[in-house]
């Protein structure tokens, strides 16, 4: 049986999906973007701050499921401009221990929801 994971400490879903789904010991998160969960405002003034908010939103979803970034097995990073990769990677890297960092892919896409610059999802395990 699957368990739906939602927290007010991350942006509320804006469509027919949930922030995450827990099945057994596996957690599948929806992609997080830079929406401030307190105000509901999009925060995309600079790529480093945007990425930090995305990671903080992801952190809140993981915490609601009783997990941390140490539980993350794989991430998917979608970016609107590969020129932002280094800045995104610099912020992203502060959330993981390099020796135990998850697998990941980073893909440049034409557009993202609300025309943000970065969206990150994760698969984690207890």
UniProtKB/TrEMBL annotation:
It comes from the Bacteria. InterPro entries: RidA, RutC-like_sf, YjgF/YER057c/UK114. GO terms for molecular function: deaminase activity. GO terms for cellular component: cytosol. Belongs to the RutC family. NCBIfam families: Rid family detoxifying hydrolase (TIGR00004). This is 2-iminobutanoate/2-iminopropanoate deaminase. The lineage of its organism: Bacteria, Pseudomonadati, Bacteroidota, Flavobacteriia, Flavobacteriales.
